[in-house]
Design goal:
globular, 39% helix, 2 domains, Rossmann fold, 12 helices, 316 residues, alpha/beta
Length: 316
């Protein structure tokens, strides 16, 4: 892996990243010790493709469709109805309205999906998610989900780690969903994945002890929850934060340092030929980027290639 971001096109964005890392890692007035070099990144739409639906949404909606297939009484109730009929309109509206501040549909959706894998252990759930991620294909890109990670972002994560940064995933998707593949795909170990959770309970019997999933949402790691969970896990502010949506605004704000330099990256999806072009759910973030000195990463202009040609795996 190159240490000079070869998958990135030359330009102001790449220069801003290289100069920032150089500034905080070399002796001088802006030097930051390695233990304070924290970088937090959203996952969906930031590290891998989220369109037309986030990866975990596809996983959970397939489970809702299975439930509706087994129980006809669910087929007229949302979100089982949308999942069973493969209707992305209702599902897409729930996500879009959430980012616009209306959670009416999102609450219905979250209430249903919190029970999709209730009553099994966290290890069993990870087996389900791992199998899905290694076998399922993106609906339009013609590649598996593990090959739908953005090559330049994987390269950036490796570059930061090589310069003493501790990288974390801070995602609205479930932490336990992403942990089985986080090291392999993103070079980030499972203990450094922060995400949404279901309520868990401890169970002990003659065969040992287990952590079990319950049919209730613990918290949705989006919006203001992102900085709260970063602080709860680390007790530190990030030096670098990267996101792509309105839900990432608080995390990018949290990376603003009065005593140290900071770098806030906002991914702009504007490449319809190689990926997708959309701004829905990112309108407020794009406005804030223009007034808060965030660095906008244009997929069209800044990514030399969007996806790796073969594998996105990172060698530990």
């Amino acid at each position: 892996m190159s240490t000079q971001l070869e998958s990135w096109n030359e330009g102001a964005t790449k220069t801003a990243i290289l100069e920032f890392v150089d500034t905080v890692t070399k002796p001088g007035p802006s030097f930051v010790p390695s233990e304070e070099r924290i970088a937090t990144f959203d996952a969906d739409g930031t590290l891998w493709c989220e369109h037309p639906l986030p990866v975990e949404a596809d996983f959970l909606l397939r489970r809702l469709a299975e439930m509706a297939k087994a129980d006809p009484t669910l087929r007229d109730r949302q979100p089982w109805k949308a999942a069973y009929e493969h209707d992305n309109t209702w599902l897409g509206a729930a996500i879009a309205e959430h980012y616009a501040g209306n959670d009416d549909k999102a609450k219905i959706l979250l209430g249903a999906i919190s029970g999709t894998y209730a009553g099994i252990s966290v290890q069993e759930f990870e087996m389900h998610s791992d199998a899905f991620l290694r076998s399922a294909q993106h609906p339009t890109l013609g590649r598996g989900y593990l090959q739908s990670a953005y090559a330049p972002m994987i390269e950036l994560l490796a570059y930061l780690e090589a310069h003493g940064f501790t990288n974390l995933i801070v995602s609205g998707s479930g932490a336990d969903f992403m942990r089985p593949i986080s090291q392999e795909v993103f070079g980030i170990p499972p203990e450094r994945v922060i995400g949404s959770t279901t309520v868990l309970e401890y169970a002990s019997d003659d065969e040992g002890s287990r952590i079990m999933r319950k049919a209730a949402l613990g918290f949705l790691d989006d919006g203001a929850q992102k900085p709260i969970q970063i602080w709860s896990h680390l007790g530190r502010r990030p030096l670098i934060a990267g996101g792509n949506s309105n839900g990432d605004i608080p995390m990018l704000d949290f990376a603003n340092r009065l005593d140290k330099p900071s770098l806030r990256l906002l991914i702009l999806h504007n490449d319809a030929e190689r990926e997708f072009a959309y701004r829905t759910g990112a309108e407020n973030a794009l406005t804030r980027a223009g007034t808060n000195a965030w660095t906008i990463v244009s997929m069209y202009d800044d990514f030399g290639n969007v996806f790796a040609e073969t594998s996105t795996a990172v060698t530990p």
